[in-house]
Q: What sequence folds into this?
Protein backbone atom coordinates (compact mmCIF):
# COMPACT_ATOMS: atom_id res chain seq x y z
CA UNK A 1 0.00 0.00 0.00
CA UNK A 2 1.34 3.45 -0.88
CA UNK A 3 2.06 5.79 1.99
CA UNK A 4 -1.17 7.74 1.97
CA UNK A 5 -1.11 10.25 4.80
CA UNK A 6 -4.18 10.25 7.02
CA UNK A 7 -4.66 12.97 9.65
CA UNK A 8 -6.89 11.81 12.52
CA UNK A 9 -8.48 14.71 14.43
CA UNK A 10 -9.70 14.14 17.99
CA UNK A 11 -10.30 15.95 21.28
CA UNK A 12 -11.82 19.43 21.22
CA UNK A 13 -13.58 21.64 23.74
CA UNK A 14 -16.54 19.35 24.33
CA UNK A 15 -18.24 17.41 27.09
CA UNK A 16 -17.28 14.33 25.07
CA UNK A 17 -13.57 15.22 24.95
CA UNK A 18 -12.36 12.03 26.65
CA UNK A 19 -14.57 9.79 24.50
CA UNK A 20 -13.12 11.50 21.44
CA UNK A 21 -9.59 10.68 22.62
CA UNK A 22 -10.56 7.01 22.87
CA UNK A 23 -12.11 6.98 19.38
CA UNK A 24 -9.21 8.95 17.93
CA UNK A 25 -6.46 6.72 19.27
CA UNK A 26 -8.39 3.61 18.19
CA UNK A 27 -8.47 5.01 14.65
CA UNK A 28 -4.82 6.12 14.78
CA UNK A 29 -3.54 2.69 15.77
CA UNK A 30 -5.79 0.70 13.43
CA UNK A 31 -4.80 2.87 10.46
CA UNK A 32 -1.12 2.61 11.38
CA UNK A 33 -1.52 -1.16 11.41
CA UNK A 34 -3.15 -0.92 7.96
CA UNK A 35 0.01 0.67 6.53
CA UNK A 36 -0.94 4.34 6.36
CA UNK A 37 1.27 7.23 7.40
CA UNK A 38 -0.92 8.47 10.23
CA UNK A 39 -0.72 11.97 11.68
CA UNK A 40 -2.58 12.28 15.01
CA UNK A 41 -3.99 15.79 15.50
CA UNK A 42 -5.14 16.51 19.04
CA UNK A 43 -7.42 19.47 19.76
CA UNK A 44 -6.85 20.65 23.37
CA UNK A 45 -9.79 22.01 25.32
CA UNK A 46 -8.05 25.40 25.37
CA UNK A 47 -7.92 25.65 21.57
CA UNK A 48 -5.40 25.10 18.82
CA UNK A 49 -4.03 21.84 17.44
CA UNK A 50 -1.17 19.57 18.53
CA UNK A 51 0.54 16.81 16.58
CA UNK A 52 3.35 14.36 17.30
CA UNK A 53 4.46 10.84 16.39
CA UNK A 54 4.76 10.32 20.15
CA UNK A 55 0.97 10.11 20.44
CA UNK A 56 0.57 6.36 20.86
CA UNK A 57 -2.15 5.60 23.39
CA UNK A 58 -4.98 7.02 25.47
CA UNK A 59 -2.56 7.23 28.38
CA UNK A 60 -0.71 10.06 26.63
CA UNK A 61 -3.72 12.32 27.33
CA UNK A 62 -4.51 11.55 31.00
CA UNK A 63 -2.72 14.73 31.99
CA UNK A 64 -2.34 17.96 30.02
CA UNK A 65 -0.27 16.88 27.00
CA UNK A 66 2.83 18.79 25.93
CA UNK A 67 3.10 18.22 22.18
CA UNK A 68 4.07 20.70 19.44
CA UNK A 69 1.33 23.04 18.23
CA UNK A 70 0.45 22.95 14.53
CA UNK A 71 -2.03 24.64 12.22
CA UNK A 72 -3.63 23.91 8.87
CA UNK A 73 -2.08 25.64 5.89
CA UNK A 74 -2.20 24.86 2.14
CA UNK A 75 -3.50 21.33 2.47
CA UNK A 76 -1.12 20.30 5.24
CA UNK A 77 0.05 20.96 8.76
CA UNK A 78 2.64 23.58 9.72
CA UNK A 79 4.40 23.74 13.08
CA UNK A 80 3.62 26.94 14.94
CA UNK A 81 7.28 27.48 15.90
CA UNK A 82 9.51 28.20 12.95
CA UNK A 83 6.73 27.67 10.36
CA UNK A 84 8.26 24.29 9.55
CA UNK A 85 5.98 22.16 7.39
CA UNK A 86 5.04 19.22 9.57
CA UNK A 87 3.15 16.98 7.17
CA UNK A 88 1.00 17.01 4.07
CA UNK A 89 -2.50 15.54 4.43
CA UNK A 90 -4.08 13.28 1.82
CA UNK A 91 -7.23 12.47 3.84
CA UNK A 92 -8.60 13.67 7.18
CA UNK A 93 -10.72 11.59 9.55
CA UNK A 94 -12.86 13.40 12.11
CA UNK A 95 -13.07 11.64 15.49
CA UNK A 96 -14.20 14.69 17.48
CA UNK A 97 -17.41 13.94 19.38
CA UNK A 98 -19.52 16.99 20.17
CA UNK A 99 -18.63 20.68 20.17
CA UNK A 100 -17.08 22.37 17.17
CA UNK A 101 -15.53 19.09 16.11
CA UNK A 102 -18.91 17.56 15.31
CA UNK A 103 -21.07 20.59 14.51
CA UNK A 104 -19.49 21.21 11.09
CA UNK A 105 -16.84 23.74 12.15
CA UNK A 106 -13.91 21.33 11.71
CA UNK A 107 -15.37 19.97 8.46
CA UNK A 108 -15.65 23.49 7.05
CA UNK A 109 -12.10 24.34 8.16
CA UNK A 110 -10.71 21.25 6.43
CA UNK A 111 -12.58 22.04 3.24
CA UNK A 112 -11.37 25.64 3.31
CA UNK A 113 -7.79 24.35 3.41
CA UNK A 114 -8.40 21.91 0.56
CA UNK A 115 -8.16 18.74 2.64
CA UNK A 116 -10.20 15.72 1.62
CA UNK A 117 -12.24 14.25 4.45
CA UNK A 118 -13.51 10.74 5.12
CA UNK A 119 -16.23 12.15 7.37
CA UNK A 120 -19.57 13.92 6.82
CA UNK A 121 -19.40 17.47 5.51
CA UNK A 122 -20.31 20.70 7.29
CA UNK A 123 -24.01 21.12 6.34
CA UNK A 124 -25.14 17.67 7.46
CA UNK A 125 -22.98 17.92 10.59
CA UNK A 126 -24.47 21.28 11.56
CA UNK A 127 -28.07 20.14 11.13
CA UNK A 128 -27.81 16.88 13.04
CA UNK A 129 -25.66 18.20 15.87
CA UNK A 130 -28.63 20.35 16.83
CA UNK A 131 -31.59 18.25 17.99
CA UNK A 132 -34.08 21.03 17.17
CA UNK A 133 -32.82 21.34 13.60
CA UNK A 134 -32.70 17.58 13.13
CA UNK A 135 -36.36 17.35 14.18
CA UNK A 136 -37.28 20.05 11.68
CA UNK A 137 -35.31 18.30 8.93
CA UNK A 138 -36.91 14.93 9.65
CA UNK A 139 -40.42 16.41 9.68
CA UNK A 140 -39.69 18.17 6.42
CA UNK A 141 -38.91 14.80 4.83
CA UNK A 142 -42.08 13.28 6.26
CA UNK A 143 -40.19 11.04 8.68
CA UNK A 144 -41.84 10.00 11.95
CA UNK A 145 -40.63 11.89 15.03
CA UNK A 146 -42.11 12.31 18.50
CA UNK A 147 -43.89 15.58 19.41
CA UNK A 148 -41.28 17.96 20.83
CA UNK A 149 -40.75 21.55 21.91
CA UNK A 150 -37.50 23.50 21.94
CA UNK A 151 -37.21 25.60 25.11
CA UNK A 152 -34.74 28.46 25.16
CA UNK A 153 -33.21 29.39 28.50
CA UNK A 154 -34.40 33.00 28.29
CA UNK A 155 -37.93 31.93 27.37
CA UNK A 156 -38.09 29.56 30.35
CA UNK A 157 -36.94 32.34 32.65
CA UNK A 158 -39.38 34.99 31.42
CA UNK A 159 -42.36 32.93 30.20
CA UNK A 160 -42.28 29.95 32.54
CA UNK A 161 -46.04 29.53 33.02
CA UNK A 162 -46.82 29.54 29.29
CA UNK A 163 -43.89 27.23 28.49
CA UNK A 164 -44.97 24.86 31.24
CA UNK A 165 -48.49 24.68 29.79
CA UNK A 166 -47.11 23.99 26.31
CA UNK A 167 -44.95 21.16 27.62
CA UNK A 168 -47.67 19.64 29.76
CA UNK A 169 -49.87 19.40 26.67
CA UNK A 170 -47.65 16.42 25.72
CA UNK A 171 -48.53 14.74 29.02
CA UNK A 172 -45.97 13.39 31.50
CA UNK A 173 -43.49 11.80 31.42
CA UNK A 174 -41.29 13.86 29.11
CA UNK A 175 -37.60 13.54 28.29
CA UNK A 176 -35.43 16.66 28.42
CA UNK A 177 -32.24 16.91 26.33
CA UNK A 178 -29.65 19.66 25.81
CA UNK A 179 -29.97 20.50 22.11
CA UNK A 180 -26.31 20.25 21.15
CA UNK A 181 -24.89 17.48 23.33
CA UNK A 182 -24.46 13.75 22.82
CA UNK A 183 -23.47 10.61 24.77
CA UNK A 184 -26.60 10.97 26.96
CA UNK A 185 -24.99 13.88 28.82
CA UNK A 186 -27.55 16.11 30.55
CA UNK A 187 -30.55 13.98 29.53
CA UNK A 188 -33.23 13.20 32.10
CA UNK A 189 -36.85 12.09 32.31
CA UNK A 190 -39.40 14.26 34.13
CA UNK A 191 -42.63 12.77 35.50
CA UNK A 192 -44.12 15.92 37.01
CA UNK A 193 -43.65 19.72 37.06
CA UNK A 194 -41.02 19.61 39.80
CA UNK A 195 -39.05 17.00 37.88
CA UNK A 196 -39.32 19.13 34.74
CA UNK A 197 -37.82 22.14 36.51
CA UNK A 198 -34.88 20.02 37.72
CA UNK A 199 -34.40 18.51 34.25
CA UNK A 200 -34.39 21.92 32.54
CA UNK A 201 -32.01 23.35 35.14
CA UNK A 202 -29.57 20.53 34.33
CA UNK A 203 -29.96 21.01 30.57
CA UNK A 204 -29.40 24.78 30.84
CA UNK A 205 -26.16 24.24 32.76
CA UNK A 206 -24.81 22.68 29.56
CA UNK A 207 -26.67 24.38 26.69
CA UNK A 208 -28.73 27.47 25.88
CA UNK A 209 -31.54 25.36 24.42
CA UNK A 210 -33.29 22.20 25.57
CA UNK A 211 -35.47 19.83 23.59
CA UNK A 212 -38.49 18.48 25.47
CA UNK A 213 -40.38 15.58 23.93
CA UNK A 214 -42.91 12.99 24.97
CA UNK A 215 -41.30 9.99 26.66
CA UNK A 216 -42.36 6.54 25.51
CA UNK A 217 -42.76 4.05 28.34
CA UNK A 218 -41.51 0.62 27.32
CA UNK A 219 -39.78 1.94 24.22
CA UNK A 220 -37.02 -0.01 22.48
CA UNK A 221 -33.74 1.66 21.46
CA UNK A 222 -32.43 0.54 18.07
CA UNK A 223 -29.34 1.72 16.19
CA UNK A 224 -28.42 1.48 12.53
CA UNK A 225 -25.20 2.77 10.97
CA UNK A 226 -24.62 3.70 7.35
CA UNK A 227 -21.33 3.75 5.45
CA UNK A 228 -22.01 6.13 2.60
CA UNK A 229 -19.94 6.06 -0.56
CA UNK A 230 -20.51 8.15 -3.66
CA UNK A 231 -23.95 7.13 -4.84
CA UNK A 232 -24.38 4.16 -2.50
CA UNK A 233 -25.29 3.54 1.12
CA UNK A 234 -24.30 0.37 2.97
CA UNK A 235 -26.36 -0.23 6.11
CA UNK A 236 -25.17 -2.11 9.19
CA UNK A 237 -27.19 -4.79 10.96
CA UNK A 238 -29.69 -3.31 13.42
CA UNK A 239 -28.62 -3.23 17.06
CA UNK A 240 -31.02 -3.09 20.02
CA UNK A 241 -29.54 -1.54 23.15
CA UNK A 242 -30.93 -2.28 26.61
CA UNK A 243 -30.66 -0.05 29.67
CA UNK A 244 -31.43 -0.33 33.36
CA UNK A 245 -32.59 3.31 33.44
CA UNK A 246 -35.27 5.40 31.73
CA UNK A 247 -32.67 6.40 29.13
CA UNK A 248 -29.31 4.87 28.29
CA UNK A 249 -26.82 6.65 30.54
CA UNK A 250 -23.25 7.85 29.97
CA UNK A 251 -22.03 5.42 32.63
CA UNK A 252 -23.75 2.48 30.90
CA UNK A 253 -22.25 3.48 27.56
CA UNK A 254 -18.65 4.09 28.61
CA UNK A 255 -17.95 3.14 32.23
CA UNK A 256 -19.26 -0.42 32.35
CA UNK A 257 -21.87 0.43 34.98
CA UNK A 258 -25.49 -0.68 35.14
CA UNK A 259 -27.13 -3.30 32.94
CA UNK A 260 -26.22 -2.01 29.48
CA UNK A 261 -26.34 -4.85 26.99
CA UNK A 262 -27.15 -5.09 23.31
CA UNK A 263 -28.30 -7.60 20.72
CA UNK A 264 -27.27 -7.59 17.07
CA UNK A 265 -29.07 -8.22 14.87
CA UNK A 266 -32.03 -6.87 16.80
CA UNK A 267 -35.03 -9.18 17.06
CA UNK A 268 -37.66 -7.01 15.39
CA UNK A 269 -40.73 -7.67 13.26
CA UNK A 270 -39.77 -7.45 9.59
CA UNK A 271 -41.94 -4.35 8.90
CA UNK A 272 -40.29 -2.49 11.80
CA UNK A 273 -36.77 -3.40 10.69
CA UNK A 274 -37.60 -2.43 7.10
CA UNK A 275 -38.96 0.94 8.26
CA UNK A 276 -35.74 1.73 10.14
CA UNK A 277 -33.63 0.89 7.10
CA UNK A 278 -35.92 2.96 4.88
CA UNK A 279 -35.56 6.01 7.14
CA UNK A 280 -31.76 5.65 7.20
CA UNK A 281 -31.68 5.42 3.43
CA UNK A 282 -33.89 8.50 3.11
CA UNK A 283 -31.72 10.55 5.46
CA UNK A 284 -28.48 9.60 3.75
CA UNK A 285 -29.79 10.18 0.24
CA UNK A 286 -31.50 13.50 0.97
CA UNK A 287 -28.47 14.92 2.76
CA UNK A 288 -25.94 13.36 0.37
CA UNK A 289 -24.08 11.95 3.36
CA UNK A 290 -20.48 10.80 3.00
CA UNK A 291 -18.46 8.83 5.51
CA UNK A 292 -20.11 6.93 8.35
CA UNK A 293 -23.13 7.97 10.44
CA UNK A 294 -25.31 6.20 13.00
CA UNK A 295 -29.05 6.64 13.31
CA UNK A 296 -30.80 6.12 16.65
CA UNK A 297 -34.45 5.07 16.64
CA UNK A 298 -37.24 4.53 19.15
CA UNK A 299 -39.61 1.61 18.66
CA UNK A 300 -42.98 1.35 20.38
CA UNK A 301 -44.99 -1.67 19.29
CA UNK A 302 -45.11 -1.45 15.50
CA UNK A 303 -44.31 2.29 15.48
CA UNK A 304 -40.85 3.61 14.60
CA UNK A 305 -39.62 7.12 15.44
CA UNK A 306 -36.40 8.74 14.24
CA UNK A 307 -34.49 10.01 17.27
CA UNK A 308 -31.16 11.41 16.04
CA UNK A 309 -28.32 11.03 13.56
CA UNK A 310 -24.74 10.95 14.84
CA UNK A 311 -22.23 12.27 12.30
CA UNK A 312 -19.25 11.26 14.48
CA UNK A 313 -20.61 8.10 16.14
CA UNK A 314 -18.85 6.41 19.04
CA UNK A 315 -15.88 4.33 17.80
CA UNK A 316 -16.98 5.53 14.33
CA UNK A 317 -19.58 2.73 14.48
CA UNK A 318 -16.84 0.22 13.60
CA UNK A 319 -18.41 -2.37 15.92
CA UNK A 320 -21.65 -2.34 13.91
CA UNK A 321 -19.79 -3.47 10.79
CA UNK A 322 -17.59 -6.09 12.46
CA UNK A 323 -16.67 -7.22 15.95
CA UNK A 324 -12.94 -7.93 15.49
CA UNK A 325 -10.00 -5.55 15.22
CA UNK A 326 -9.24 -6.97 11.78
CA UNK A 327 -12.76 -6.14 10.59
CA UNK A 328 -12.53 -2.69 12.21
CA UNK A 329 -9.24 -2.04 10.41
CA UNK A 330 -10.78 -3.12 7.11
CA UNK A 331 -13.74 -0.80 7.71
CA UNK A 332 -11.57 2.26 8.43
CA UNK A 333 -9.45 1.45 5.39
CA UNK A 334 -12.59 1.48 3.25
CA UNK A 335 -13.55 4.89 4.66
CA UNK A 336 -10.14 6.35 3.84
CA UNK A 337 -9.92 4.85 0.35
CA UNK A 338 -13.43 6.05 -0.52
CA UNK A 339 -12.50 9.62 0.45
CA UNK A 340 -9.15 9.42 -1.34
CA UNK A 341 -10.68 8.42 -4.68
CA UNK A 342 -14.00 10.28 -4.54
CA UNK A 343 -14.31 13.16 -7.02
CA UNK A 344 -13.83 16.59 -5.50
CA UNK A 345 -17.00 18.64 -5.14
CA UNK A 346 -15.51 22.03 -6.01
CA UNK A 347 -16.55 23.52 -9.33
CA UNK A 348 -15.22 26.53 -11.22
CA UNK A 349 -15.09 29.73 -9.17
CA UNK A 350 -15.84 32.83 -11.24
CA UNK A 351 -13.84 36.04 -10.78
CA UNK A 352 -15.80 39.16 -11.70
CA UNK A 353 -12.83 41.56 -11.88
CA UNK A 354 -14.98 44.31 -10.35
CA UNK A 355 -12.15 45.51 -8.09
CA UNK A 356 -10.14 46.44 -11.19
CA UNK A 357 -13.05 48.35 -12.69
CA UNK A 358 -13.06 52.11 -13.13
CA UNK A 359 -15.35 52.76 -10.19
CA UNK A 360 -12.74 51.35 -7.76
CA UNK A 361 -9.59 52.74 -9.40
CA UNK A 362 -10.28 56.52 -9.31
CA UNK A 363 -9.06 57.01 -5.79
CA UNK A 364 -12.52 57.90 -4.49
CA UNK A 365 -15.16 55.92 -2.73
CA UNK A 366 -18.06 54.95 -5.02
CA UNK A 367 -21.22 56.95 -4.68
CA UNK A 368 -24.17 55.35 -3.03
CA UNK A 369 -26.93 54.38 -5.46
A:
Amino acid sequence: MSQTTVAVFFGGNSNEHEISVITGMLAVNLLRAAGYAVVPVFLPRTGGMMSSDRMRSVGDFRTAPDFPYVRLENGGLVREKGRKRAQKIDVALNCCHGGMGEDGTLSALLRYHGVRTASPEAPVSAVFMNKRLSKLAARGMGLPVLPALCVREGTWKHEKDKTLRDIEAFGYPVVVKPCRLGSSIGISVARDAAGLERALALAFRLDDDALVERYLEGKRDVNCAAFCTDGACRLSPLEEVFSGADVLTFAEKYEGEGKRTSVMPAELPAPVADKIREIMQTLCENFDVRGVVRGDFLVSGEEVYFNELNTVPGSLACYLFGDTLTENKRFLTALVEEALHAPRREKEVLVSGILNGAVFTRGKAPKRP
